[in-house]
Amino acid sequence: MVEFITMAPTSGDGEYVGNTGGGTSKLEGWTASAEREPSLAYITEIAIAAEKNGFGTLLLPTGSNCLDSLVIAATLVPKTETLKFLFAVRPGFTAPTVFAKQFASLDYLSGGRALINVVTGGSPAEQASDGDFLDHGARYRRTDEFIQVVKRLFTEEKFDHEGEFYQLKAASLFPKPVQAEPQIYIGGASEAGIQVAASVADVYMMWGETTDFIRERIEEVKAAVSEHNRKLSYSISFQVILGDTEEQAWANAQKTISKADHIAISGKEQANIKGDSVGLKRLHQLMVDSKAQDFRIGPNLWAGLTQVLSGNSIALVGTPDQVADRIIEYIQLGFDKVLLRGFPHLETIGAIGSEIIPRVRARLAALEL
Fold first, then answer.
1. Is the dihedral of CA 180, 182, 183, 184 positive or negative?
2. Which of 142, 258, 265, 327 is least surrounded, with the fewest CB atoms within 10 Å of its CB?
3. What kind of fold does domain 3-237+335-367 have according to CATH?
4. pLDDT tens-place string over residues 237-253
5. End-to-end Cα separation, the chain, in angstroms
């Protein structure tokens, strides 16, 4: 069974991407193009729409310009019934004992609807702004140790731990999570990231790329997982831009970045140069290589948003049938979780729920997948 995931726009939302407004917007401090503030009312509307439209999980991101993921998750629990909350945590900002307590409390109060997204971090500047100065390799070693400690807190009554980054004496956790084995999601395109995922994660997350690139990556991860005698689930993420016709869909794609300005584009370029995320550099190269083709990197696949967005920026562009067909192709590569989002998030969630998810499920049933 394929699960659909979407994301809450806790940095703000809007129809256009990359419009900084010259720094004069009343929403200054939120993500560029934030025409809609991430208010309690709006984020609640997002969660309710996700649950209503066939999404099983809502990702709550972390970052310097996001609302706190744990606070948002706790706020949304009583406003939903079945929706799971995949909330992000950065090991450099939160001790594993503190996080385990937060998670277990949320899991208890939600009746087992909490999931974990461990984010190692790929921007040295952002890490440093919060007092974290570890290099890329050390951050992944810390992530590995963080997850190991959290898992022990979930399953053991009391233990000591003496590691490279954490030292604990007679550590214990109350309450234990409701779930016997809470799922831990992790991404990371570097060798270090893949090895950590292979050894301690439950779900490996990938950003959308071409099917050829994704096929190579997933086989690489599976090989690493087999060395640890483990199995993982796999998640892939895309933006979605729809139209009644393919031509209209591409016009809608262009509209999305029609107000992007040099501040946003230059800022994204500088962030990529200064960052050390292998995944972001892969996306940037896809964008650069496809510029002459109007950023089209494959059938119904577009890297135009990568000009102004970090992370999940590759878009599926087309009619509902075309987008559903492309999603099936990725599912057949081995993905059992698909994260779909778009701009503005609320309307896109509704469109995906009515036009994409039913088509994908019908195709999967016909293929007996």
1. negative
2. 258
3. TIM Barrel (3.20.20)
4. 999 999 999 999 999 99
5. 8
